[in-house]
């Protein structure tokens, strides 16, 4: 268990890192296109094991065709599968979306609940999806741990774990609550632009000198 002084120094290092990332990515927002909480929920379910860019291509037509939870409930499963086919794992995703929408209608009067725990109870919605929707649609302080956040939190030396829940808790320990939502966007943006898996641009990284994976003296 880290000492109080170690914990304080880690918080200060995290503050420096995220201060630099804040300046580098001044307009943090989801890469998914959406207009409503419901659209964001559907998009985030589709984004599992798929790129945000591909999801945005699919939802451009999808959201014109399906506007309410009822629309997803009543469409034949095979038709929905065809509509989302290119996002991958389309059979499982189609079933999850239909069941999730059924629960929205039966338990929440067709509305997306503005509550993390209630979101997390929905079929096909894990902590990451619940955090994305809670934070970006409702402004509820939350940290969404996707593949970029998981990878960068380890590379930056904040934690040594592949457990997304442990990473979420650790990042919440290190960061002030006001930065929780944006921290995910900053790390995701940095992971896409600079700290790219298998070909990181360490010499172009604004936090390179504070990263133990690049500069071992800053672990």
Distinctive features:
219 residues, mainly alpha, Endonuclease Iii, domain 2, Endonuclease III, domain 1, 2 domains
In brief:
The chain is mostly helical and about 220 residues long. It has 11 helices and no strands.
Can you offer a commentary on this structure?
The chain is mostly helical. The chain is built from eleven helices and no strands. It has two domains: 11-28 and 143-218, Helix-hairpin-Helix base-excision DNA repair enzymes (C-terminal) (Endonuclease Iii, domain 2); 37-138, Endonuclease III, domain 1 (Orthogonal Bundle). The model has no long low-confidence stretch (mean pLDDT 95). It starts with a helix and ends in a 26-residue tail after the last helix. Helix 1 packs across helix 11 (180-193), helix 2 (37-46) packs antiparallel against helix 8 (127-138) and helix 5 packs across helix 6 (90-108).
Q: Write down the domain tally.
A: 2
> What string, H for helix and E for strand, traces the elements in order?
HHHHHHHHHHH
| Radius of gyration based on Cα positions | 19 Å
- What CATH calls the topology of the largest domain is Endonuclease III, domain 1
Structural topology:
Elements: H1 4-24, H2 37-46, H3 52-65, H4 69-74, H5 77-83, H6 90-108, H7 116-121, H8 127-138, H9 147-155, H10 164-174, H11 180-193
């Amino acid at each position: 268990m880290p000492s109080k002084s170690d914990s304080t120094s880690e918080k200060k290092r995290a503050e420096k890192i995220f201060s630099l990332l804040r300046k580098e990515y001044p307009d943090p927002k989801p890469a998914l296109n959406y207009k409503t909480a419901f659209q964001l929920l559907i998009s985030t379910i589709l984004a599992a094991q798929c790129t945000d860019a591909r999801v945005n291509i699919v939802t451009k037509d999808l959201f014109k065709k399906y506007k309410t939870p009822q629309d997803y409930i009543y469409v034949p499963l095979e038709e929905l599968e065809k509509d989302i086919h290119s996002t991958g794992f389309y059979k499982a995703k189609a079933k999850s979306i239909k069941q999730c929408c059924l629960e929205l209608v039966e338990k929440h009067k067709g509305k997306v609940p503005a509550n993390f725990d209630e979101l997390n109870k929905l079929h096909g919605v894990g902590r990451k999806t619940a955090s994305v929707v809670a934070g970006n649609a409702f402004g509820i302080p939350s940290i969404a741990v996707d593949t970029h956040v998981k990878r960068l939190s380890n590379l930056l030396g904040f934690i040594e774990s592949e457990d997304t829940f442990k990473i979420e808790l650790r990042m919440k320990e290190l960061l002030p609550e006001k930065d929780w939502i944006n921290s995910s966007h900053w790390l995701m943006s940095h992971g896409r632009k600079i700290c790219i898996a298998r070909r990181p641009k360490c010499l172009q990284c604004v936090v390179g000198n504070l990263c133990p994976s690049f500069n071992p003296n800053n672990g």
